[in-house]
């Protein structure tokens, strides 16, 4: 599996340093605020991720190498989770991406609970959609 | 403690959740179970099981007697008439699917089905799909800003083309008890079958089906302190013969050869296969127990909790959906996404529901992406609500 970037390493340290859920929540909100969101114009029914109770839009920019995802979400904490997701996978090639275990990543951050199998926050649906997009011939 | 619940002690699940630091405020989704219900399940399985209605041996006889006694007991709790029929289903959802299929042969293109704007998916989708496949018109009766059905308007819409009127008496989102008697009577006069979805309402007020005079009524056991996977479909004496058999298999057959078959009338003709015997018996046990409690005191307790929730939410300027008057309240915090709030309440061990509550069209019509819902049952107490409000304040402090 590909190694963590230095920013990702720093995020792990920051989240592991959180002693309480409040600190974790505030940190997530900060990450969400930093997310460079998919522009409004591209938030269309086509880019909407199905299976999220909260609306999330996802676009794969297949012109860039390595592949680059752009995401937007209505909810701020989910936006934070998505920003952390992108932090882990940004800059990876498709082949490298396939080897990333996001369960491990979110566990490292102390956020594994957010990958629950219920549809409650939609993170899983986003992951599934990413895999679908990557499988499409580029 | 204020608003203590004398009934809390009877629910091991609520006590176990409390030990896990969880406050259960999602009873409109499913209720915790009383000891008597769990004991009835265990007892049934421990004494030796058998299929009902087919064997001549002693265990089969015993199971059949217990199963049919449970049917009578549940009919009694629902205050059904002596000649009315009770069909066991998997729950309200299956009950309404059964009706939409079993009445379909009476309906012709251009006929109308009436539902309300506040129906949950279970009382919308079976009718919607029936309308689509049979060329029927699905008419959605509007509600006002308070979440009340406009009964006069609804009555004015009725015509002989209306063949089915299917309504909930208590919406799982708006939480407002509807008075539907006049509408039911008017619908009956134009020859429509009247279907009442009592999934939410029956939990908070014992139904009186003889008084209600609807043709069909459904409810689910799991919301009513009973087990999962069982529900009832009540059919009024005058309406039961309108139903055509819809699922086929063992136990429903009068005569069968390779090319054709004759079926038993309701209820057995509508209960093919081995029924959920243990659950039916345990459901009856839960209702018998419920009936013997001080029901006015329970209603008073739930009303006091409800008032406390409403006042607390109003004091914090939460945006409440409609004017709820029973057991639940849906709301949003200004400028805060419901999913964010739900996540932070979850972090603090408060179990409330967030999302569209299986009523997407309703929330869309209100211009909302979703909402949070607090729902109450007899076992909740003042401490639960205080924990909820502390958690809410804490979450809002972070999010606002």
Structure description:
The complex is a heterodimer of chains A (138) and B (400). With 138 residues, chain A is mainly alpha-helical. The longest helix of chain A is centred in the N-terminal third of the chain and has 14 residues, at 21-34. Chain A contains 6 helices and 2 strands. In chain A, 31% of the residues are buried. Chain A is 46% helix and 9% strand. Chain A has a single domain, classed as Sufe protein. Chain: A (Alpha-Beta Complex). With 400 residues, chain B is α/β, with parallel strands linked by helices. Helices cover 39% and strands 16% of the residues of chain B. In chain B, helix 2 (35-46) runs antiparallel to helix 10 (277-291), helix 6 (151-157) runs parallel beside helix 7 (181-189) and helix 12 (338-347) packs across helix 14 (382-399). At the A-B interface, helix 2 and helix 3 of A face helix 12 and helix 14 of B.
SSE order and pairing:
The complex is a heterodimer of chains A (138) and B (400).
Chain A: H1 6-16, H2 21-34, E1 56-61, E2 68-73, H3 76-89, H4 94-98, H5 102-108, H6 123-135
Antiparallel strand pairs in A: 1-2
Helix pairs in contact in A: 2-3
Chain B: H1 12-19, E1 23-24, H2 35-46, H3 58-77, E2 85-89, H4 92-102, E3 112-116, H5 125-134, E4 137-141, H6 151-157, E5 162-168, H7 181-189, E6 193-197, H8 201-204, H9 209-212, E7 216-220, E8 231-235, E9 253-256, E10 261-263, H10 277-291, H11 295-315, E11 319-320, E12 328-332, H12 338-347, E13 350-351, E14 353-355, H13 360-365, E15 371-375, H14 382-399
Parallel strand pairs in B: 1-13, 3-4, 3-5, 5-6, 6-7
Antiparallel strand pairs in B: 2-8, 7-8, 9-10, 11-12, 12-15, 14-15
């Amino acid at each position: 599996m590909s190694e963590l970037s230095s920013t990702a390493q720093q995020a792990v340290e920051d989240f592991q340093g959180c002693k309480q859920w409040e600190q974790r929540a505030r940190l997530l909100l900060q990450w969400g605020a930093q997310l460079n969101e998919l522009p409004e114009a591209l938030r269309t029914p086509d880019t909407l991720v199905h299976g999220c109770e909260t609306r999330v839009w996802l676009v794969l920019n297949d012109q860039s190498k390595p592949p680059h995802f752009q995401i937007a979400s209505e909810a701020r904490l989910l936006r934070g989770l998505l920003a952390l997701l992108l932090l882990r996978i940004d800059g990876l090639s498709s082949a490298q991406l396939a080897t990333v275990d996001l369960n491990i990543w979110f566990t490292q951050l102390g956020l594994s609970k957010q990958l629950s199998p219920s549809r409650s926050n939609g993170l899983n649906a986003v992951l599934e959609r990413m895999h679908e997009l990557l499988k499409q011939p580029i | 403690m204020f608003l203590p619940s004398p009934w809390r002690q009877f629910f091991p699940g609520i006590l176990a959740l409390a030990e896990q630091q969880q406050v259960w405020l999602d009873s409109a989704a499913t209720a915790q179970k009383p000891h008597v219900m769990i004991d009835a399940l265990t007892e049934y399985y421990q004494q030796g099981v058998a299929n009902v209605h087919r064997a001549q041996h002693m265990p089969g006889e015993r199971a059949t007697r217990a199963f049919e006694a449970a049917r009578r007991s549940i009919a009694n709790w629902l205050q059904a008439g002596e000649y009315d029929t009770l069909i066991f289903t998997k729950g309200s959802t299956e009950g309404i699917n059964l009706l939409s299929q079993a009445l379909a042969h009476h309906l012709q293109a251009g006929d109308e089905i009436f539902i309300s704007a506040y129906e949950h998916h279970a009382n919308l989708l079976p009718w919607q799909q029936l309308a689509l496949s049979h060329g029927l018109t699905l008419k959605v009766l509007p509600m006002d800003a308070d979440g009340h059905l406009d009964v006069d308007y609804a009555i004015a819409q009725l015509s002989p083309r209306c063949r089915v009127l299917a309504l909930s008496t208590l919406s799982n989102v708006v939480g407002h008890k509807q008075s539907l008697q006049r509408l039911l009577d008017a619908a009956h006069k134009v020859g429509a079958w009247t279907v009442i979805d009592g999934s939410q309402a029956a939990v908070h007020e014992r139904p009186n089906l003889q008084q209600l005079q609807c043709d069909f009524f459904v409810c689910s056991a799991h919301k009513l302190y009973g087990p999962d996977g069982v529900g009832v479909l009540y059919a009024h004496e005058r309406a039961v013969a309108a139903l055509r058999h819809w699922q086929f298999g063992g136990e429903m057959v009068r005569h069968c050869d390779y090319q054709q078959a004759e079926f038993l009338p309701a209820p057995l003709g509508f209960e093919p296969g081995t029924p959920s015997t243990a659950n039916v018996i345990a459901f009856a046990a839960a209702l018998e127990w419920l009936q013997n409690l001080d029901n006015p005191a329970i209603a008073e307790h739930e009303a006091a909790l409800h008032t406390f929730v409403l006042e607390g939410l109003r004091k914090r300027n939460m945006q409440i959906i409609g004017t709820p008057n029973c057991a639940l309240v849906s709301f949003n915090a200004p400028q805060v996404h419901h999913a964010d709030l739900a996540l932070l309440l979850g972090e603090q061990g408060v179990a409330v529901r967030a999302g569209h509550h299986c009523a997407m069209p309703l929330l869309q019509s209100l211009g909302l992406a979703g909402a949070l819902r607090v729902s109450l049952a007899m076992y909740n107490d003042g401490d639960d609500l205080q924990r909820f409000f502390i958690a809410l304040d804490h979450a809002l402090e972070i999010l606002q």
